[in-house]
């Protein structure tokens, strides 16, 4: 009897966990649809909402852009130098540029930009909102009639998406310029050959996959950390979860999604 | 679960909000606009650069290369001329006759390097993709027309490796056969070893020549006999020489007779010399006779002149007598 009871208990636990897991994904999908519907409606960008949006855009992007660009340029410089020297030592210097562009621009920089934005902006915001949700602040505000989705969530999500795009494009362009300067030096005469190699790498499929990867990275980074805190949780669930655990679970989900996107892009590029 | 948004109450800076007010940012909208415009410029610039790098803004002409095997050729690969890329593979397709058709876009600005006599090669290296190369030997030939189809000559380094391995295997087999236990080389070396053994043996080189020791001994014996015969012959020759010396240089030898003959011959020569002296005197006299005859001949001239003058004088005398003579004829001629 005790054995069957324990099985029933574990089955119930499994059932609860599965339902909770499905419910969390459903909340994420619902939150995404709400945000996208707001993003596609012109009223979200009218004069009334524009200051908040502009404020989030500037505060989330500008400081990180400078630091990330500098750090990314340094790391890129080191990696480019390593690849070029290694390729030269093996007599494969003609393939160095292609390898640098593929490794840095196509793979590393978008991933790094997404992780940087997640760790610096959206995950802390998500944890802060979860804390406020747990302490009842958000519930109070909602009872007061505040439109949290439009006033708080939407600017943060849009600024997160924009920050990923901006960091990725700036760092990709910087890396391309650094790769040219490292390999050829300060001369304009290698530009034609360099352009030709870049054109060979960025065929339409690769360019499309890069674009889609950055877009999906930005969606994942901006939406996943904020989605769960938008919804009220029942008291039992709230008691069972610590605030830090909430942040960890969102982080885990975010990294899983980023990993899946990266794997999909790798399969698209190389298979 | 979801919250219904209320659009009229959205202001993050409202006084009744419980969220901490964010620090103000000056000219936030302007900065946001600058960021948006920057991103737009970067994205549009990148797209335009990639389109330019892909040759989207170039006028091109099409070149079709046919080959049996297009393995290693990828879309976007370069067609190079003297190491410079002048074309780009647009697509690769299979023709109805089973050949691969590599369709290449050549920019019009670079198309003048390709002539009707140009040849195109596909080289597959061990590292990297296949390389398409164009060679134009005669640059004065007519330019290659649009949509021209040419054969692609394949130079495959990887395909040479199995052939080279097969050749190396054959070579090693031959070498193994050559150096085997029953190989001709081994037999030759064994023979050489036997020869050197015989050379260093008691019979030495003679044994090597004769083949066995018995024959060698027989040969040596015969050689010794031959030497003895030669010795006897030499002795006989010595006696013969002594006899010849006696006969030639002895008291009654040939040389004595020859010496007497030479003495007689010497006397004969003296007589001959005297005779010749006499002949010389005769000749001197004959020379004197000749000189006299020459002088006599020289006197005949004045004698003749004297005779001629005497005759003239006689003639004149006769003429004088005729004139003075009464029977002189009248020389005048009387005309009738």
* Rg for CA atoms of chain B: 68 Å
For the residues shown, what is the average pLDDT of chain A?
Answer: 87
Proportion of residues in helical segments of chain B: 40-55%
Low-confidence stretches of chain A: none
Order of helices and strands of chain B: HEEEEEEEHHHHH
Strand proportion of chain A: under 5%
Query: How many domain modules of chain A?
Result: 1
Count of runs of 4 or more consecutive helical residues of chain A: 9
Please describe what this structure looks like.
The complex is a heterodimer of chains A (271) and B (336). Chain A has 271 residues and is an all-alpha fold. Chain A has one domain (2-270). Chain A has 9 helices and no strands. Chain A has helices at 2-40, 50-89, 96-135, 137-143, 148-184, 191-201, 204-227, 235-240, 243-270. In chain A, helix 2 (50-89) runs antiparallel to helix 3, helix 3 (96-135) crosses helix 6 and helix 3 (96-135) packs antiparallel against helix 9 (243-270). Chain A starts with a helix and ends with a helix. The model of chain A has no long low-confidence stretch (mean pLDDT 87). Chain B is an alpha/beta fold and 336 residues long. Among the domains of chain B are: 60-157, no CATH class; 250-287. Helix content of chain B is 53%, strand content 15%. Chain B contains 6 helices and 7 strands. Chain B has helices at residues 28-53, 157-178, 184-199, 204-210, 213-249, 254-324, and strands at 60-67, 78-81, 84-94, 100-107, 119-124, 130-135, 148-156. In chain B, a hairpin with a 2-residue loop joins strand 2 (78-81) and strand 3 (84-94). The radius of gyration of chain B is 68 Å and the shape is flat. Chain B starts with 27 loop residues before the first helix and ends in a 12-residue tail after the last helix. The model of chain B is unreliable at 1-15 (pLDDT under 50). The interface between A and B is large, with 55 and 42 residues.
Summarize the model shown.
The complex is a heterodimer of chains A (271) and B (336). Chain A is mostly helical and 271 residues long.
């Amino acid at each position: 009897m005790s054995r069957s009871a324990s099985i029933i208990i574990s089955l119930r636990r499994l059932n609860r966990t599965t339902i909770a897991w499905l419910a969390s994904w459903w909340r994420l999908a619902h939150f995404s649809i709400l945000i996208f519907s707001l993003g596609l409606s012109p009223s979200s960008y009218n004069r009334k909402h524009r200051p908040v949006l502009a404020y989030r855009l500037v505060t989330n992007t500008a400081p990180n852009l400078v630091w990330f660009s500098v750090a990314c340029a340094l790391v890129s410089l080191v990696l480019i130098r390593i690849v070029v020297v290694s390729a030269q030592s093996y007599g494969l210097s003609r393939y160095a540029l292609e390898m640098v562009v593929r490794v840095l621009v196509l793979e590393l920089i978008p991933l790094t930009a997404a992780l940087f934005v997640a760790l610096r902006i959206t995950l802390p915001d998500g944890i802060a909102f979860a804390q406020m949700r747990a302490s009842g602040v958000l519930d109070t505000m909602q009872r007061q009639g505040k439109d949290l989705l439009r006033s708080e969530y939407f600017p943060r999500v849009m600024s997160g998406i924009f920050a990923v795009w901006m960091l990725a494009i700036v760092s990709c362009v910087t890396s391309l310029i650094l790769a040219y300067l490292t390999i050829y030096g300060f001369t304009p005469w290698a530009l034609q050959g360099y352009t030709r190699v870049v054109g060979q790498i960025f065929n339409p499929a690769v360019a499309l996959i890069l674009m889609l990867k950055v877009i999906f990275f930005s969606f994942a980074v901006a939406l996943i950390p904020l989605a769960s805190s938008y919804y009220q949780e029942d008291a039992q669930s709230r008691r069972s979860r610590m605030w830090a655990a909430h942040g960890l679970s969102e982080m885990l989900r975010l990294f899983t999604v980023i990993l899946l996107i990266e794997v999909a892009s790798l399969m698209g590029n190389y298979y | 679960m979801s919250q219904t948004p209320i659009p009229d109450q959205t202001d993050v800076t409202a006084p009744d909000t419980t969220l901490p007010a964010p620090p103000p940012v000056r000219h936030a909208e302007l900065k946001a606009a600058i960021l948006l415009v920057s991103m737009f410029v970067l994205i549009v610039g990148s797209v335009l650069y990639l389109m330019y790098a892909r040759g989207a803004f170039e006028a091109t002409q099409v070149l079709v290369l046919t080959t049996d095997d297009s393995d290693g050729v990828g879309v976007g690969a370069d067609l190079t001329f003297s190491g410079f890329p002048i074309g780009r593979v647009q697509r690769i397709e299979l023709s109805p006759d089973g050949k691969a058709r590599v369709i290449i876009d050549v920019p019009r600005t670079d198309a003048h390097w390709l002539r009707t006599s140009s040849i195109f090669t596909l080289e597959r290296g061990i590292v990297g993709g296949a390389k398409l190369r164009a060679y134009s030997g005669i640059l004065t030939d007519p330019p290659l027309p649009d949509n021209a189809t040419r054969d692609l000559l394949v130079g495959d380094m990887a395909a040479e490796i199995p052939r080279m391995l097969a050749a190396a295997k054959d070579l090693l087999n031959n070498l193994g056969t050559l150096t085997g236990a029953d190989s001709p080389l081994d037999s030759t070396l064994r023979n050489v070893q036997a020869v050197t053994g015989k050379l260093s043996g008691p019979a030495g080189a003679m044994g090597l020549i004769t083949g066995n020791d018995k024959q060698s001994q027989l040969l040596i014996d015969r050689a010794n006999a031959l030497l003895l015969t030669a010795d006897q012959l030499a002795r006989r020759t010595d006696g013969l020489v002594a006899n010849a010396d006696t006969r030639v240089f002895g008291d009654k030898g040939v040389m004595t007779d020859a010496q007497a003959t030479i003495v007689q011959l010497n006397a004969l020569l003296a007589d001959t010399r005297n005779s010749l002296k006499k002949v010389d005197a005769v000749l001197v006299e004959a020379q004197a006779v000749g000189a006299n005859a020459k002088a006599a001949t020289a006197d005949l001239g004045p004698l003749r002149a004297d005779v001629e003058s005497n005759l003239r004088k006689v003639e004149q005398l006769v003429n004088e007598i005729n004139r003075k003579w009464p029977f002189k004829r009248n020389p005048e001629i009387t005309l009738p």
